[in-house]
Inverse folding.
């Protein structure tokens, strides 16, 4: 059976006085602060958030308060020089690029190079175990009397 249309509308209105509005306003402020602090406490319980926050705070404090005491541009130039030095061919960049001859430390293509180079050329990996085997028993195909 269909519901009949309403014939009249009754409107109920609740009017708050000043004291009730003040109480309600305090409650609303309290609930907003509770939500905000809940978010902060949740973030502080996360280790990654605390680590990032500490790093940012430490960087900001260091930049603003220690930059005058220490030579910050000089430090940045030193870091730039170290990065340029690391980009030059050598054992570290050889390991990164996969160049076996750089890792092995060969002095010249025709030279004997280091013990690690001789081990690589003889087919041995330059590991600690192979170095111990070389010094105790010798390795076939690797020259005698080389030092590390």
């Amino acid at each position: 059976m269909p519901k009949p249309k309403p014939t009249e509308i009754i409107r109920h209105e609740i009017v708050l006085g000043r004291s009730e509005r003040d109480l309600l306003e305090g409650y609303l402020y309290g609930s907003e602060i509770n939500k905000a602090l809940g978010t902060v406490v949740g973030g502080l319980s996360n280790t990654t958030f605390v680590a990032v926050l500490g790093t940012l705070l430490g960087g900001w404090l260091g930049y603003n308060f220690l930059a005058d005491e220490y030579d910050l541009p000089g430090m940045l130039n030193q870091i730039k020089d170290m990065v340029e030095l690391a980009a030059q061919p050598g054992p570290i960049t050889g390991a990164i690029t996969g160049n076996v001859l750089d890792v092995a430390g060969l002095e010249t293509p025709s030279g004997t190079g280091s013990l690690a180079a001789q081990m690589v050329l003889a087919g041995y990996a330059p590991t600690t175990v192979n170095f111990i085997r070389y010094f105790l028993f010798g390795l076939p195909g690797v020259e005698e009397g080389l030092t590390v």
Summary: Confidence is low (pLDDT under 50) at residues 94-112.
